[in-house]
């Protein structure tokens, strides 16, 4: 999933990346909504709330929503900056580094929420900001890796693109190429896994409370492991081959 550039990605790699990251976004968004009454994997609602508070001249809320938007933006900026900095040396390192940072942040949310969270307003605002930062990193990363094809939580754009792609697929004057079909498959995968993640996030949060945030980094770790395990096996095989020949 992470070892390929956007020009050399396969349908299977894109489907696996789409499903895993959409699942993470869905779980995170609903868990954040139940825990904090705020969306935590996208910012459309936060922009609307910022505008409303500006009209009402509610300075404290303006500052909070502005910071949340900035956290998402900074996460997206940092993710792409890291990818551009390391992709000349290793695509895996370039793509894995933002995921590692996201895992650390979400582990912090899990540990703090499960053991120390006292439901104060400041704690709520800080934790939401941390989650938005991590989701900004993830959204930017998957978009960069896939060449803009995958956006793990941007469902407005997803439905827009899906409608256009299906029209191209079935229209009599269009040619149903494999590229269009693959786009439809990927967008439906994002939609399906995001929706499944939302259902799972709401159900599991009711059962396990903040412990659900331990599950989210576990999904991200499987993304890292998927690409790392064949490399480790290859190096291990070469190591023993050298031992047997000496």
Outline the structure in words.
The chain is mainly alpha-helical and 246 residues long. The protein is built from eight helices and no strands.
Rg calc: 20 Å
Could you estimate the helical fraction of the residues in percent? over 70%
Give the N-to-C terminal Cα separation: 36 Å
H/E element order:
HHHHHHHH
SS element count, helices: 8
Low-confidence stretches: 231-237
Write the layout of secondary structure elements.
Blueprint: H1 11-36, H2 44-56, H3 59-86, H4 91-115, H5 121-145, H6 155-170, H7 178-208, H8 212-245
Please provide a brief summary of the model.
This protein is mainly α. Helices cover 80% and strands 0% of the residues. The protein has helices at residues 11-36, 44-56, 59-86, 91-115, 121-145, 155-170, 178-208, 212-245.
Which features characterize this protein?
246 residues; 0% strand; 8 helices; mainly alpha; globular
